[in-house]
Amino acid sequence: MNTYKPDWLRVKAPQQERIGNVSDLLKDLNLKTVCQEASCPNIGECFAGGTATFLIMGPGCTRACPYCDIDFDKSVRGLDPSEPERLGEAVKRLGLNHVVITSVNRDDLEDGGASQFVSCIKAVRSSSSNTTIELLVPDFCGNWDALRTVMEASPNVLNHNIETVPRLYKKARPQGIYKRSLELLLRVKKESNNVYSKSGLMVGLGETDNEVMQVLSDLKENNVDIVTIGQYLSPGPKHLKVDRFVSPDQFEKYRKESEDQFGFLQVVSSPLTRSSYHAGEVRRLMEKYPR
Predict the structure, then answer these.
(1) Phi, psi of 133 (to 5 degrees)
(2) How far apart are CA 229 and CA 259, in angstroms?
(3) What are the CA-CA distances from residue 147 to residues 74, 84, 124 (Å)?
(4) What does the alpha-carbon distance between residue 155 and residue 49 come to, in Å, rounded to a whole number?
(5) pTM summary value
(6) What's the sign of the alpha-carbon dihedral 230, 231, 234, 239?
(7) Cα distance between residue 165 and residue 88, in whole Å
(8) Is the N-terminal amide bond of 59 cis, ω within 30° of 0?
(9) What pLDDT does 201 receive?
(10) What CA–CA distances, in Å, run from 54 to 51, 86, 206?
């Protein structure tokens, strides 16, 4: 187990003025971002660039994944009907060309929050019609009617993170099911060939490089277009520890081998890569490979 953080994981000091502007807007509209709630290491760069990944239906999550810094909350609570409108206003004020919307797991809801995702899509399209929309969704506990509801709202990109290798699911994602996540990704394309499907995984939890390549092979077999690979960083002493720090050269090897072997449209692989990091590149990808 490695606790020393190497130089390549050190992040430049953020531009406080721009971060403050985005933070003030989020506070004004009473919105959350996964950048803040999950202690993302790229918050400085993304906020400084005027981008954010919005976190809806939170802040508490009904799952307690030991790698994640979002608070656990299994209490039953209603959805905020004003949240979609406030999110749409934030997208408009920030002038976003591409927006990422994710959520906590809401296993307490019959549809897992699918209806709230749909309302957010409608609100963004009403306030900023040219903005492309990327959703990062939970597994909906295998409720494929809920997934269909989301897909019928026609997001441009549908992301569901596979997170880790199947051997480590009980350790890192105890309420998740590897095959269920793969099935969700496959069903995305069955529902619509026009959407870009996306998934991401963390490394450094105890997996082997061969296991990483097998996951990438599984993602390709389930028609995933875009993959992100990043280093797991422990949020605190109560979370899973880092097993290894993967070198930048190895991340580049993941990228090159997965592109050569599997032919994904895009593989973003680096120590600081996160699922929605540089999400604006997805819009450029959509322009290159229109559907």
Answers:
(1) -120, 125
(2) 13
(3) 22, 18, 19
(4) 23
(5) 0.90
(6) positive
(7) 35
(8) yes
(9) 96
(10) 10, 11, 30
Q: Which two tokens stand for residue 190?
A: 């069955």
Q: Which domains does the chain have, with CATH numbers?
A: 7-288 (3.20.20.70)
Q: What is the 3-state secondary structure (H, E, C) of the chain?
A: CCCCCCHHHCCCCCCHHHHHHHHHHHHHCCCEEHHHHCCCCCHHHHHHCCCCEEEECCCCECCCCCCCCCCECCCCCCCCCCHHHHHHHHHHHHCCCEEEEEECCCCCCCCCCHHHHHHHHHHHHHHCCCCEEEEECCCHHHCHHHHHHHHHCCCCEEECCCECCHHHHHHHCCCCCHHHHHHHHHHHHHHCCCCEEEEEEEECCCCCHHHHHHHHHHHHHCCCCEEEEEECCCCCCCCCCCCCCCCHHHHHHHHHHHHHHHCCCEEEECCCCCCCCCCHHHHHHHHHCCC
Tell me the β-bridge partners of 100.
Answer: 53, 134
**Residue 157 forms beta bridges with which residues?**
134, 196
Q: Residue 195 contacts by C-beta under 8 Å, 6 or more apart in sequence? A: 151, 154, 155, 156, 157, 158, 188, 189, 291
Check if the beta carbon of residue 283 is closer than 8 Å to that of residue 97.
Answer: yes
Residue type, 32: K
Task: Please identify every stretch of the chain with a pLDDT value under 70, giving residue numbers as ranges.
Answer: 1-4, 11-21, 33-52, 76, 277-280
Q: Could you identify the residue written with the tokens 């399209």?
A: 125
- Provide the β-strand partners of residue 202: 230
Residue 86: its pLDDT value, please?
A: 95
268, 202, 276: which is closest to 235 by C-alpha?
A: 202
Instruction: Please name the residue that has the structure tokens 């905020």.
Output: 80
pLDDT value of residue 219: 98
